[in-house]
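Hey team,

Sharing the Sodium transporter HKT1 run so nobody has to redo it. Sequence (508 residues) first:
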Amino acid sequence: MHKTLFFFSTFFPRTLRFLPPFLAFHFNPFLFQLCYFLILSVVGFLGLKLSKPRTPSMPNNLDLFYTSVSASTTSSMVALEMEVFSNSQLILLTLLMFLGGEVFTSMLDLLLARNKLFHTTINPFSHSHQSPTNATQIELGLVSIPHSKSENHTPSHNVACIRLKYNSLRYLTYVVFGYLVMVQLVGFSMVSFYMTVVASARQVLKNKDIKIATFSLFTIVSTFASCGFVPTNENMMVFKNNSGLLLLILPHVFLGNTLYPPCLTLVLMVLEKVTRKEEFSHLLKNSKNLGYRHLFSVSRCCLLVCTVFGLNVVQFVMFWSVEWNSEIMEGMNLYEKVVASLFQVTNARHAGESVFDLSSISSAILVLFIVMMYLPPYTTFLPVREEENDVKRNGKSAVECVVLSQLSYLAIFIILVCITERKSLKEDPINFNVLNITLEVISAYGNVGFSMGYSCGRQLKDDGMCKDSWVGFSGRWSNGGKFILILVMFFGRLKKFNMKGGKAWHLS
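Structure output:
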């Protein structure tokens, strides 16, 4: 693992230095990530197409591409039964989820930022005291260095600041990659041990002919990347009585998503105390100015932790009060009910794994889940302003944050799906209704993967050709509907570039 870390974090950044300076200056982060996910999805599709599934019949190309996009964007929208995929295909999907996870892609952003810093400034490893012509014109891609005539900002001082910033980003890259590998390695080891020791869980995999190592690696990578894919058709429903397994998987929902910034800050604080290196101190003191969107100040980390657990408590209380005595809880004791309920509501914030059939959950809870899936992972309740002159919050109405913003685009996508599926909405209104479509679209946008599924028993007219299968609701949509949802998955994965959408509109 040490050799892998050395290669990825040292050799690859050095290779990036040989990119043409034009690319270093002009690459667009949005276009870069869009191309990255498109290429990843196409390569994944080709890999799934060339490898053999378990079943004799090959799934159609659109469903394979749909699955590849779903894994690459960590959306986990299911158009095919998971047990259709062979062991080699499951490993390929695991790789797609790993490469498409937010923590991994953020590390690519760090590497590109370091490369841009290298090309747009003095070589940080040079001992020359030659300075740029004007420090204010240095485009770091992270933060510009203010030009000052004071003695504290001499050319040598500017070079030292650039060198410190570059080295800080280098150390941050090591920390992120180490965090990425160690968390999943520990999770994989613990889940593998559990599946080997606990006979009931091991028997499930044996009956489904799924290898323990494949299941453990696939599930941990999927959970950490907030994808929600599980190698079993029933997702985690088949393990709802295995509370120990749910508790082992549950922390990874937080560690790779909503609580990643606080955990990263905590790791940096520990390293700063142990190593006493200036770079770690610089990272902690300049979290807002380094351009890494996952690095928060200590105060915001505390607020984020409170918000995450506060929203979870609200969900848990509502879910418990409404569903405690429902049929989905049958056959479970008090301890199993608590753990399963906690696992379900926690996954509603982005991971998307499910221990209960969503079609059996009350509409009130489904609406709550829709709201939670819409919220960005780092939604934070700020009772006070972090800065005295918070210009971004002054003079902004609620309308500016809504009209033609994320909600507007989602409304357009829902309308388009209702148009493509208008025949099914008329002939099969119980399965195809606006609430189910809305949940599916918001789930794809939030890259969650929750789905109502489809039941032939809910059809008003039995055509005699319907066959129940463990696929998501969108798996029953027309090709046009699936294509729209593919766009939604890409839009949701790249939504961080449009969080300020709609603010240019003024209504009077």
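The chain has a mean pLDDT of 82.

Ping me if you want the raw files.
A.
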